[in-house]
Structures are given as structure tokens and as C-alpha cells.
């Protein structure tokens, strides 16, 4: 069965603005914001935190089974918000938005969040080395991966307009 609403991944290094975008996009489109980090925490799909980086050691099999049970693939209409993207099966996903941020801006956002030492360094390196963009390009077809800047509030506004338009077009193309 074909889905009536698209599934969108919003990904990028922590602090680039995934939650900001996903929440506003959900409000504007009626699609559902799925905070994967929240699910990992709430459902306990992890084996604790990495001592040095403080990030969850995620049990991806359990996470995927959970999402599969919720029938994300056929239902459609999910905005998957996570700092990784290549675990979602290609057939589930219609658009992958990779948010990017200037490194001095990101540094300020992450330090404001209390990140320091190895956790801060790793995330800064990840953004500078465009790890998530490469991951997205490797895992999905080139034409469904878009890279968008998220330095300012104006960027958020422009990005949302663009994604909302994309959602409308997708729906028109998949009517009937
Ligand atoms: P993420 O979900 O990627 O970790 P977030 O949405 O929680 O990021 O944003 C982190 C912080 O930065 C938060 O205080 C909101 C702010 N922020 C995000 N994107 C922004 C943008 N484009 N312009 C201004 N502030 C932004």
C-alpha cells in the first residue's frame, strides 16, 4: 500500500536545529514530529551512556522494531528527528533534510547546552567534517537528500517554506 503522506528525516549534528525545524514543520503541515532521541530514552533502547562522550549507546534493532511496529513505512506522515539517518530503511523515507551550521554558531549553541571536553570536540568535528551529510548521501538516493543552512532564524523560516512546499507537491503527486 502506498503512503498518503511523506516520511521526512531531519538530521544533522546535535545543536544544528533539528528539533526547532521538526516542531515547526509538524505544526505547519500536520505531520507528526517523531523525536527519536526521546523514544530511545523513554523506551530504554540503549545500553547506558558512553562515559566519555555522554551520548546514549543505542540499541538500533530495538529502536527499528519499535518504529516498524508503529507502521511508519505504510502510514507515512512522520518527521523523524535524529542525529543519525542511515539506520532508517530506504523504502521508508521520501526526503532527508541535513541541517548545517556555521561552526562558531554551533560552538556557542553547544556550550550553552553545557557540552564540553570530548563531547563538544566530537560534535564540532562531526559538523566540520560533514559526517551526517556524507552518511545521508551514502544511504539514500542523491535526489532525496537536501542540505539546508540553519545559522539564523531567517534560515529556519526559509527552510520551512521550502519543506512545506515540498510536502504539498509530494501530496499532489501521490493523490488518488
Ligand atoms: P537539535 O535538535 O539539532 O539538537 P535544536 O533545535 O534543539 O537542535 O537547537 C539548538 C539550539 O539552537 C536551540 O536553543 C535553538 C537554537 N537554534 C537552532 N537552530 C537555529 C537557527 N537556525 N537560528 C537560531 N537559533 C537556532
Question: What does this molecule look like?
Answer:
The protein is of the alpha/beta class and 176 residues long. The chain has helices at residues 18-29, 36-43, 60-69, 72-75, 103-112, 117-128, 131-139, 153-173; strands at 8-11, 32-35, 46-49, 56-58, 78-81, 95-100, 145-149. Strands 2-5-1-6-7 form a five-stranded parallel β-sheet, with helices on both faces. A two-stranded antiparallel ribbon has the order 3-4. β3 (46-49) and β4 (56-58) form a beta hairpin. α1 packs across α8 and α5 packs antiparallel against α6. The radius of gyration is 16 Å and the shape is globular. The model has no long low-confidence stretch (mean pLDDT 95). The site of 2'-deoxyadenosine-5'-diphosphate (DAT) has 15 residues, from α1 and α8.
Supply the key terms:
single chain, 176 residues, alpha/beta, two-stranded antiparallel sheet, 49% helix, globular, binds 2'-deoxyadenosine-5'-diphosphate
